[in-house]
């Protein structure tokens, strides 16, 4: 390149005036618009400067308080937490927006419902304000654990009943005749009780005595004695015994033992009869 068209000085800037003039000529429109914007900005700044100065003077104290508030450690910590939880904050804001829209939609419906049920709500309020309701709520509060246990028990009982109902229905159907007979027996027992005027206490004592008698009869000792007696009584052709044979038999140990048992039974039977007579006399 020729030195008279373009040259650089020591700091690397253009020194050729023709190059500068050419650049200004090429950007004439942009430079004119820029100068116009600078003029407008200067005029706007001149108009706003007194207002801004007055605004700053009037709000100097609030600005200072705001600056001090933002410089506090709590505010910095809060801003830091807000920054860290920005995603959660955005989700909460979205939920709040949806909730507001939902509430705006529900408010007219709720107003209509309240207007239509005003009398019912008034009665419910009066019922809840009564002393009995307050006492009931206090008792429920004092027995919440017991109430929870009862509810759990009711749930378990309900489930058990639901499980057992088919089985009980089948059992009732299979034993319908037996149940009918037991019902008839109970009705007959009730009629007999009315006709005979049975003492239920004595009936219970007699039933207990019968059970004790059956238990005694089941004793091996008693059954052995009965078996031996039946065996002796059912002999086909026992040998006839006279007075001399009876006297000889008294020397037999088995015969004497049998006679002792008979005498003990007779003695016990006699004492039982005496006790029964004394009891009746008293």
From TrEMBL:
Alphabetical list of InterPro entries matching this protein: DUF1641
A family per Pfam: DUF1641
Coiled-coil region(s): 17-44
Keywords: Coiled coil
Protein name per its UniProtKB record: Uncharacterized conserved protein YjgD, DUF1641 family
Organism: Natrinema hispanicum
């Amino acid at each position: 390149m020729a030195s008279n068209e373009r040259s650089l000085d020591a700091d690397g800037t253009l020194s050729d005036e023709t190059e500068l003039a050419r650049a200004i000529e090429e950007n004439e429109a942009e430079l004119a618009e820029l100068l116009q914007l600078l003029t407008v900005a200067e005029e706007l700044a001149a108009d706003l400067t007194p207002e801004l100065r007055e605004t700053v003077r009037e709000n100097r104290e609030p600005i200072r308080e705001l600056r001090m508030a933002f410089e506090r450690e709590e505010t910095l910590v809060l801003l830091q937490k807000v920054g860290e939880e920005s995603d959660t904050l955005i989700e909460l804001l979205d939920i709040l927006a949806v909730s507001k829209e939902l509430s705006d939609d529900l408010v007219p419906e709720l107003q209509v419902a309240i207007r239509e049920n005003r009398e019912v709500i008034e009665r419910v309020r009066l019922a809840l304000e009564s002393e009995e309701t307050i006492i009931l709520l206090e008792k429920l509060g004092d027995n919440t654990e017991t109430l929870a246990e009862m509810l759990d028990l009711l749930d378990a009982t309900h489930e058990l009943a639901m499980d057992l109902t088919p089985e009980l229905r089948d059992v009732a159907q299979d034993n319908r005749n037996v149940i009918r007979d037991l019902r008839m027996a109970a009705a007959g027992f009730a009629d007999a009780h009315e006709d005979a005027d049975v003492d239920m206490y004595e009936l219970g004592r007699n039933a207990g005595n019968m059970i004790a008698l059956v238990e005694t009869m089941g004793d091996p000792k008693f059954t052995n004695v009965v078996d031996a007696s039946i065996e002796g009584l059912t002999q086909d052709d026992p040998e006839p015994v006279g007075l001399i044979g009876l006297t000889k038999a008294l020397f037999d140990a088995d015969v004497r033992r049998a006679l002792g048992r008979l005498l003990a039974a007779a003695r016990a039977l006699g004492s039982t009869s005496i006790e029964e007579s004394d009891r009746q006399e008293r």
